[in-house]
Amino acid sequence: MIVAGIGFRASASADSLRSALDRAAQGRAPDLIAAPADKAAAPCLTAFAARLGVPVQAVPADRLAAMETPTQSARVHASRGTGSVAEAAALAAAGPGARLLTPRQISEDRQATCAAAISGETQ
């Protein structure tokens, strides 16, 4: 299973999310989109997921904070307890043994980030 972890600003649009996904997924279609629980119902994210035809998984704040990520943003760490929301969401939703396919990628308009992870069960 491929999970697209998404982080985004309040001003992001579905096009912002698409740009970040295109950079992170490298042609692979995600099976699931993961986002912080407090943003999982945001209109831009729900519209984007509907366009892709994939579900959104809300990742609780404590699970995001528990994930170690290769990207380390001091600002994000101060507010979210992890170095990258996108990487942490992707890894948390992909489950035990998951690994990143791509680290956090930033949308062209710099309003969204996306990282892709593959579950530990996928060969």
From TrEMBL:
Any one of the GO BP annotations: cobalamin biosynthetic process
Span of domain CobE/GbiG C-terminal: 2-117
Keywords: Hydrolase
GO molecular function: hydrolase activity
SUPFAM superfamilies attached to this UniProt entry: CobE/GbiG C-terminal domain-like
Hydrolase listed as a keyword: yes
Stated name of the protein: Cobalt-precorrin 5A hydrolase
A UniProt-annotated Pfam family: CbiG_C
InterPro entries with a match to the protein in the record: CbiG_hydrolase (IPR052553), CobE/GbiG_C (IPR002750), CobE/GbiG_C_sf (IPR036518)
